[in-house]
Amino acid sequence: QVQLVESGGGLVQAGESLRLSCAGSGQTFSDLAMGWFRQAPGKERVSVARITRSGATTYYSDSVKGRFTIARDNAKNTLYLQMNSLKPEDTAVYYCAATRRPVPTTAATAYAYWGQGTQVTVSS
């Protein structure tokens, strides 16, 4: 079983930055491809960024490309999401997720393990 715990959310103003962390346990972290998803009120959960097991390849949604950076430290069993130039439309609950599939996809159904989520609120 895999346990994931997010941290780092909060309330910021537009243009500011936040860094989210996701600590993993219960499984060899480097065996898991990872992703960050977000869900705004009344909307579906969508992929924000994804990273392969080694961290060599990353993927981003168009809405965050150039502003967000996903990274991982397998020695620390931790996934990160650096969020810069935040906008009010980035407001959502952010979730980290893990999959044993070699290539992380945008489909939430492909991820077997999820954290509890952390709220990010960006004021204008």
Summarize the structure.
The protein is mainly beta and 124 residues long. Helices cover 0% and strands 49% of the residues. The chain is globular, with a radius of gyration of 13 Å.
Key terms for this structure?
globular, single chain, seven-stranded mixed beta sheet, 49% strand, 124 residues, mainly beta, 11 strands
Polypeptide structure, described:
The protein is an all-beta fold and 124 residues long. The protein contains no helices and eleven strands. The strands form two sheets. Strands 2, 4, 5, 6, 9, 10 and 11 form a seven-stranded mixed beta sheet that branches. A four-stranded antiparallel beta sheet has the order 1-3-8-7, with no helix packed on it. Strand 7 and strand 8 form a beta hairpin. It is globular and about 40 Å long. The N and C termini lie far apart (40 Å). The relative contact order is 0.32. The mean pLDDT is 96.
DSSP strand count: 11
Broad shape: globular
Poorly predicted spans: none
What is the H-and-E element order?
EEEEEEEEEEE
User: Which structural class matches the secondary elements?
Assistant: mainly beta
Distance between the termini: 40 Å
SS field, number of helical segments: 0
Strand content: over 45%
Q: What can be said about the biggest beta sheet?
A: 7 strands, mixed
Structural Rg: 13 Å
Question: pLDDT average, as an integer?
Answer: 96
**Assembly status:** single chain
- The helical percent reads under 10%
Describe the secondary-structure layout.
Blueprint: E1 3-7, E2 10-13, E3 18-25, E4 33-39, E5 46-51, E6 58-60, E7 68-73, E8 78-83, E9 92-99, E10 113-114, E11 118-123
Parallel strand pairs: 2-11
Antiparallel strand pairs: 1-3, 3-8, 4-5, 4-9, 5-6, 7-8, 9-10, 9-11
